[in-house]
Amino acid sequence: xxxxxxxxxxxxxxxxxxxxxxxxxxxxxxxxxxxxxxxxxxxxxxxxxxxxxxxxxxxxxxxxxxxxxxxxxxxxxxxxxxxxxxxxxxxxxxxxxxxxxxxxxxxxxxxxxxxxxxxxxxxxxxxxxxxxxxxxxxxxxxxxxxxxxxxxxxxxxxxxxxxxxxxxxxxxxxxxxxxxxxxxxxxxxxxxxxxxxxxxxxxxxxxxxxxxxxxxxxxxxxxxxxxxxxxxxxxxxxxxxxxxxxxxxxxxxxxxxxxxxxxxxxxxxxxxxxxxxxxxxxxxxxxxxxxxxxxxxxxxxxxxxxxxxxxxxxxxxxxxxxxxxxxxxxxxxxxxxxxxxxxxxxxxxxxxxxxxxxxxxxxxxxxxxxxxxxxxxxxxxxxxxxxxxxxxxxxxxxxxxxxxxxxxxxxxxxxxxxxxxxxxxxxxxxxxxxxxxxxxxxxxxxxxxxxxxxxxxxxxxxxxxxxxxxxxxxxxxxxxxxxxxxxxxxxxxxxxxxxxxxxxxxxxxxxxxxxxxxxxxxxxxxxxxxxxxxxxxxxxxxxxxxxxxxxxxxxxxxxxxxxxxxxxxxxxxxxxxxxxxxxxxxxxxxxxxxxxxxxxxxxxxxxxxxxxxxxxxxxxxxxxxxxxxxxxxxxxxxxxx
Length: 641
Known about the structure:
Elements: H1 4-7, E1 11-14, E2 17-20, E3 30-33, H2 51-67, H3 69-85, E4 95-100, H4 102-108, H5 116-128, E5 133-139, H6 147-160, E6 163-173, E7 178-183, H7 187-192, E8 195-198, E9 211-213, E10 215-216, E11 219-220, H8 222-234, E12 248-250, E13 262-264, H9 265-268, H10 271-274, E14 284-289, E15 304-305, E16 317-318, H11 319-332, E17 337-338, H12 341-355, H13 363-388, E18 390-391, H14 395-431, H15 433-441, E19 450-461, H16 464-470, H17 473-493, E20 497-502, E21 505-510, H18 519-544, E22 551-566, E23 571-576, H19 578-586, H20 589-593, E24 597-600, H21 601-607, E25 612-619, E26 628-634
Parallel strand pairs: 4-13, 4-14, 5-6, 5-14, 6-8, 17-18, 22-24
Antiparallel strand pairs: 1-2, 2-3, 6-7, 9-12, 10-11, 15-16, 19-21, 19-22, 20-21, 22-23, 24-26, 25-26
Helix pairs in contact: 2-14, 5-6, 8-11, 12-14, 13-14, 14-15, 17-18
């Protein structure tokens, strides 16, 4: 019996045991015994959880994680990737940003806040240049120190009727409750403006800005309000085509920072000087900060936010440009639409069905299936996002798929561990546990033919022919099982490998499959232990008036060839060579010299400082040119030097 039986797909059988293994991998093993356990066909060893339980646990754990903050974070990561992959979208309606920036501060030579009359001049200049709508992403929540400044700005807004102002929202936390405080424009400006929109946008838990509120405590978003006002002025019936998502939505970014046409504030004050006549014609103008340092001394940081593009090396995006992205989405009808629960559930069910294959494939196949399933989920999400602006929330697919894959790994590990334990238990009766352990844990190349330094022991029952005449068949079987079984246990406990049991004899080897530096001493200690066990059995048999059983043992050490012997369908892993033959020829010499355990000079030279020996004779051995000296291995303690 050889380990390649397990490794290359051979089949071996003993009474009550069948083992087969295809050559595709250990995970495909099938172990069947008369106990009725079949790990592949749904019958599992006691204590082993069944496949449906692992599928259930994997699915439930995946759904729980998908509904947790972890699932939300996975969705955010995937969304960021989709935004990074998305090519810059064409802007169908003309949207221009007028930036309050460093060059404008230098040109105006005025610190913030600028006089309201400057904003009035801007409104007048842009209206004269043909701008349809002007939206200020600036808070005018306090009256100007000079009332005439407010009056001039209010009069300009009322005369043109195309100005949208911003309102802020501030969250106030206390020990007892949380409240929202609106920071609207002053009353005079509210009456003069054509619309008011909230410019506050929530940051996600990881600090990035991805979402906006279409309606926030009764106020519409600033970008939406500006787009709506622009659509009404540009074409009265266009408002019917203006798409409206849910109250909270993901921002459809039309590109990284700088995707929208941007001009300096001071240039917009004099369009005739800096631009062609039609530059601002029919445009939606958004006015806001685009500075790298705070322009407002009361503000701790400029109006810039990290968006998904920062993951790809882009700078933070100005708040006014984020509002421009929102407005452009509404005007073009292209905004991120959240998929329906039915679509997500259907896709999740489809990928759940595909994920069941993890539990029926070998490790390599399951890993490939997992990669393909995850890639397909991301590919489907990419297609829906890029082509249809549909957000699938892929965490509901990716996380359950991942958890089912991990669950399949645990299931496979448990099954293989159980199968190995079962195989070790069953086959160790035929090959020895040391040999089975080596076969399950070491490289199969260790089992190829190679020279080894080992010790071989041959044991034979004396006068066995006489016993066969004295005892009936069952008594003879019981006797052999009792004696040879006890001797085999002693050999296995001492790290020996039982090469074979032939009739009334045993051939054992120390040094295979693993190398043992003290193989000669282990073999000799085993022989002495066997002799002691024999004496115990002899006393018991004498009391029972059973026939006396005695044994002969021959031991030799040296270089041997370990490897496979046999053909294609059956092989035997064993040792052979002249040193093996010598051990076999030493065993019957016990009859000639009246001894029980004889060892060769090669073994005696290795254990002479450990065990007591007595030189018997030097005699020629068939097959050897030089005479061989044999020694008796004795139970008495070693004589002191």
